[in-house]
User: What shape does this take?
Amino acid sequence: GGVFDMMTATPRQQVFHEFVTTETNYVSILECISKISTEAEDPSQQGGALLDQQEMKIIFELLPPILKVHSDMLKKLVEAEATWSENKIVGSIILEFADDLLKAYPPFVNFFERTKNHIQECDRKNPRFHAFLKKCERRPECSRQTLTELMIRPVQRLPSISLLLNDLLKHTRKGNAGHLDCMELERALLKIKEVMTHLNEEKRRTEGQIHIFDIYSEIENCPASVVSSHRSFVCRADCIEVAAEDALCGKGYELTLFLFTDIIVVAKRKNTKGMSMMRSPSTASLAAGQQHLLQNKALKFVTVIHLSAVRRLVDVIDSEDCDSTVMSMASTATMAMPTTNSALVAIVCRLTEDLRERCYTLQLVVDSAEDKLTFLRTICRHVSNTLCRLDPDQLLVRLSARDMSLEASDLNVSSFSKALSSFHKTKQKVGRAFSFNKTPNKLKRAVSTVISPMGSARLTMDGRSSTPSDSMRELRIESSRTTPLSSRANSVQSCVDLMETESPRGSKTFPKKFNFIQESPKEQFGSENRDPGFRTPNLCSRPSFRDKFRARPRAGTLGAFTRKNSVN
Assistant: This one.
């Protein structure tokens, strides 16, 4: 016992002294962080607290449990050093606090990245907090280290303790192979390694759960049920759907499979080209006005496949005993693609909706057949875990394309087939967007009311009374059948038809060359080519009403009245 002396200390005592010294420095750093936390949330300082309660909770909340367990352990270590002897049992001190270490460290280590990022964000956005941190760095206990550098010490402490215990065990065995502390140190070392293994597993599980939120934000219309506390993300794979009897979206669609511990989320890649042209004016204006609120998502949700519904996974392979003709056609069809049909896989599942087995055939976008096999085995392992089976390899079968009844046309998922499929869907969208067949009746009546003053009902060639909607049909010009000359004639005809309608003053008879209502509008197209005496009226020199009435005056009419006045 007594004061430590480097000259007289044994190798075992030197290692233990180093352990106590590093533990003392570590607890001092934790106390320094705790002091910074107390000063940052002090509301009595000028300007109030530097951080609000939410920010304080994110940055400093997980640190006090670690400080407490190490402060208590340091007291035991200091007492052991003060009463040091070569028979001192050090391993029992570590074992005493092993359970507390296991409880205190996982929350802090798992969310350390979030804590670090939040410190940097507050340092950038809060000038008062930035000045406060700069002042803290100049303190002797901080040793010119930033808050982020101080906060990383708990992550590094457990590996450091493991190394010190290893050295202590080695020197204990050298001094006395039968020392009682050897067994305790071995147990303590195993416990520290168990804590670190648990930390790594917890961190991996936490990162997988956090990644679920990223996936949820990446997929449009993703159901909220995907986010669950018992679920974690495993891996993802890009693929192209191959034509088959059962389809998720259709042949040639680019899909992304997100594998979780109990489900597979299927999403398709959205085609952003030409999206603005397909929007209606109201939708486009809404998107423009809320552009800062709407997030552009590259994927769209398709479906969820529960691993409990998966029955088999098929590795579609090349087989030499397949039909050579079919295989040659398939190889020719897929020559332009980066992968061959060896990247084909199939997922056979039985859905609970109709209790019918479905087979979804996909072509994975992988670099090699080993990557495909690794992905399939990963799915098999998680399916077995979900179904509580001990034979994951039994779920994977290998079949050829011929056994899967896949033809060469099914394997061809070239860019042309994808473009053709996209064209058909675009055509349907355009038809729905610009269809006038379902115009509301109120709108038709409103248009008829506007046109009615220019033309009321009159008899057509078949004796049927025409309506204002018929006038609208007569005014319609078919661009595919209209020539520059006929278009000019049709426009004049439409104008004259409006002038020749019946009015309360009586009907008028016009010269023959201006009488365009003698035949239906369909027969009028191209009539200037059949009638040699036809002359296309000139819009600029069209006769006025007075000139036409002068041609055939009638007694008691407006024309005769005008002519008499002009003579006088």
